[in-house]
C-alpha cells in the first residue's frame, strides 16, 4: 500500500482528501519554523512520499506492487537514524495493537504513574526502561549493520582484484570511492510469545534502501596510497631544486666577492689620485687663511659602493631565488641562505581526486527532528489506512506476553547488545521467505521461495526510498548471474558474509492492568 501526498494524484489508494484542498498543502516547508503542525497531511518536503516522475522507475514500480503496507520516503537513502526511529515506531504500534500495553507507548511515557498500585507501576517502569534501552541500541545497531554490509562489499571487490596487479587495485579503489551512495536491505522481526517456536504473532519490518558505508573511516583514506608515487617524485624534485639553489648561491657569492675586490681597488686608486692633486694645489697656491672655513666634501652624497643598496637587484613578482646581499654583511648572508625559497602550491594527487563529488551538507538538528516526526506520522497513517481497508490489519487481542527482537545480519556484524542465534537461521529464513512470497517481493519460481511457514501468519511493513528498491536490484543481479557457477561462488564466498539471525539480549514484557 502506497501513501501519496495530498497534492499529487494517488498512487495506489486514495486517502480521501481532494487534491485541491487547502488543508492538503505541506506545512513543514519552512524547516526553521518552531510550530509543529497537528494535521496529518503536514509533511516535510524531505520526507514526503515520492512522486511518479522521480527516482528509479523500476524500483518504485516494485514497491508499488507490494501487498504489505509500504512507505516510500522522498530521500535517496534511509539513514540509520530514520531506520531506528521507524523501527521503534512500528514496535510501539505493534505493542498497542496486540494488546500488550493499555495505552500507546508514547502516551505511557507522558502519563504520571503515581495513581496506580505498586505492582502495575513496576511493570510500567520496567517496560519503559526496556523500551528506552532498545531505542538507544537500535541507533548504533543500524550503524554497525551498515558497516558490516559495506565491509562485505569491499571484501567482494578485493577478491575480484587481480593479485599483484597494482593498476587494477587502484582502479577498483577509485571506482568504489567515486560511486554513489550504496544501499542495502535489512530485515527486523518482532516475535510475540515465549519463544520462536511458540510465537503468537510475528511482525517483519523490511528497510529497503539502508545507507551502506563504513562508519568511522575517513573518506580520503583510500587515496593516500595512490599519492605515494607522486609524493616520491616531488621529494626528488625538491632535492634537485635545493641542490641547484645552493650551487647558484655559491656562484653568486663568489661573483659578488670578486666585484667587491675590484671596486675596492678602484676606490683606493681614486683616493691616491685625489691626494696627489690636493698636495700639488697646496704647494702652488697662496697660503691658507687663519679663519676657519668648512672643509669641502671629499665625497659625493651618493651612497658609497660599500653600501648593500648598490649591489641589490630589483625584485620581480615571483623571484626564482632570494636576493643575495654583499659579502660584507656575513650574518645577513647566512640568514638569507638559511631561509627556504618560497614554496608553490602543487596538487596533492592526481586530477581525478580533485573532481571527486563533494558530500552534501548534513541537515541541522531541527530539520532532522522534523523529518523524523513526519516519517512517524506517515507510518501511522499507512497502518491506519491498511486497517481501514482490511489489507493489513495488525490489531488482535493477545494476552500479555514477551516480545523478542531479531535482526538478520552478516556474521561480521558486531554489536554488544546482539547475540548470534545461528540455530534459528533455518526457521526464521523460512518465515522470511514465506513473507516475501506473500508480499509479492518474490515470485513462486524464485530460488529463495519456499513453502509457507507453519504457525501464525507473518505480518509486516515495508520502508522504501526514492532511490529505488535495493532488494529488487539485488534479486535482479542474482537472476542475471544465473546458477551455472553457483558451486564456484560457494567455494570463493567469504564465511563472514553469510547472513544469520541475531537476537537482542533484552525482552519486553507486556501488561494489561492499569
UniProtKB/TrEMBL annotation:
Bias type Basic and acidic residues, positions: 475-492
Positions of region (Disordered): 1-41, 158-182, 222-367, 473-499
Bias-annotated ranges (Acidic residues): 226-280
Biased composition range(s): Low complexity: 281-292, 329-338, 350-367
Composition-biased stretches (Polar residues): 169-182
Domain of life: Eukaryota
Name the UniProt record assigns to this protein: Uncharacterized protein
Species, as recorded: Trametes pubescens (White-rot fungus)
Amino acid at each position: 500500500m502506497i501513501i501519496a501526498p495530498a497534492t499529487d494524484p494517488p498512487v495506489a489508494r486514495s486517502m480521501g482528501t481532494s487534491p485541491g484542498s487547502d488543508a492538503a498543502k505541506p506545512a513543514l516547508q519552512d524547516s526553521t519554523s518552531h510550530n509543529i503542525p497537528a494535521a496529518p497531511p503536514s509533511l516535510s518536503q524531505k520526507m514526503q512520499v515520492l512522486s511518479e516522475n522521480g527516482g528509479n522507475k523500476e524500483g518504485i514500480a516494485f514497491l508499488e506492487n507490494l501487498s504489505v503496507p509500504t512507505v516510500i520516503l522522498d530521500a535517496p537513502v534511509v539513514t540509520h537514524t530514520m531506520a531506528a526511529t521507524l523501527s521503534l515506531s512500528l514496535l510501539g504500534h505493534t505493542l498497542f495493537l496486540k494488546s500488550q500495553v493499555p495505552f500507546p507507548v508514547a502516551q505511557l511515557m507522558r502519563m504520571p504513574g503515581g495513581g496506580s498500585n505498586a505492582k502495575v507501576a513496576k511493570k510500567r517502569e520496567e517496560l519503559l526502561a526496556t523500551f528506552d534501552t532498545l531505542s538507544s541500541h537500535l541507533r548504533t545497531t543500524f550503524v554497525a549493520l551498515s558497516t558490516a554490509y559495506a565491509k562485505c562489499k569491499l571484501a567482494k571487490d578485493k577478491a575480484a582484484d587481480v593479485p599483484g596487479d597494482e593498476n587494477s587495485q587502484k582502479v577498483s579503489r577509485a571506482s568504489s570511492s567515486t560511486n554513489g551512495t550504496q544501499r542495502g536491505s535489512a530485515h527486523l522481526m518482532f516475535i510475540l510469545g515465549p519463544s520462536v517456536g511458540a510465537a503468537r504473532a510475528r511482525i517483519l519490518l523490511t528497510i529497503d534502501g539502508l545507507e551502506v558505508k563504513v562508519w568511522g573511516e575517513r573518506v580520503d583514506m583510500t587515496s593516500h596510497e595512490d599519492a605515494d608515487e607522486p609524493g616520491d617524485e616531488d621529494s626528488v624534485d625538491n632535492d634537485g631544486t635545493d641542490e641547484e639553489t645552493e650551487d647558484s648561491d655559491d656562484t653568486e657569492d663568489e661573483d659578488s666577492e670578486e666585484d667587491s675586490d675590484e671596486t675596492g681597488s678602484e676606490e683606493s686608486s681614486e683616493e691616491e689620485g685625489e691626494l696627489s692633486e690636493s698636495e700639488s694645489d697646496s704647494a702652488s697656491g697662496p697660503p691658507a687663511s687663519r679663519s676657519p672655513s668648512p672643509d669641502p666634501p671629499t665625497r659625493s652624497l651618493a651612497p658609497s659602493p660599500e653600501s648593500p643598496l648598490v649591489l641589490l637587484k630589483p625584485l620581480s613578482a615571483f623571484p626564482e631565488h632570494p636576493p643575495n646581499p654583499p659579502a660584507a654583511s656575513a650574518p645577513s648572508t647566512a640568514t638569507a641562505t638559511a631561509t627556504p625559497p618560497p614554496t608553490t602550491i602543487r596538487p596533492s594527487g592526481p586530477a581525478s581526486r580533485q573532481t571527486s563529488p563533494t558530500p552534501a551538507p548534513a541537515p541541522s538538528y531541527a530539520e532532522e527532528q522534523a523529518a523524523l516526526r513526519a516519517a512517524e506520522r506517515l507510518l501511522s497513517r499507512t497502518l491506519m489506512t491498511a486497517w481501514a481497508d482490511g489489507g493489513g490489519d495488525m490489531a488482535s487481542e493477545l494476552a500479555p506476553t514477551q516480545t523478542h527482537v531479531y535482526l538478520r545480519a552478516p556474521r561480521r556484524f558486531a554489536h554488544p547488545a546482539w547475540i548470534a542465534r545461528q540455530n534459528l537461521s533455518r526457521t526464521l529464513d523460512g518465515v522470511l521467505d514465506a513473507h516475501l512470497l506473500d508480499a509479492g517481493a518474490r515470485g513462486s519460481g524464485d530460488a529463495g521461495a519456499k513453502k509457507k511457514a507453519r504457525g501464525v501468519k507473518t505480518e509486516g511493513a515495508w520502508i522504501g526510498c526514492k532511490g529505488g528498491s535495493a532488494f529488487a536490484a539485488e534479486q535482479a543481479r542474482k537472476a542475471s548471474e544465473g546458477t551455472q557457477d553457483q558451486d564456484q561462488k560457494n567455494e570463493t564466498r567469504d564465511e563472514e558474509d553469510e547472513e544469520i539471525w541475531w537476537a537482542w539480549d533484552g525482552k519486553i514484557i507486556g501488561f494489561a492492568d492499569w
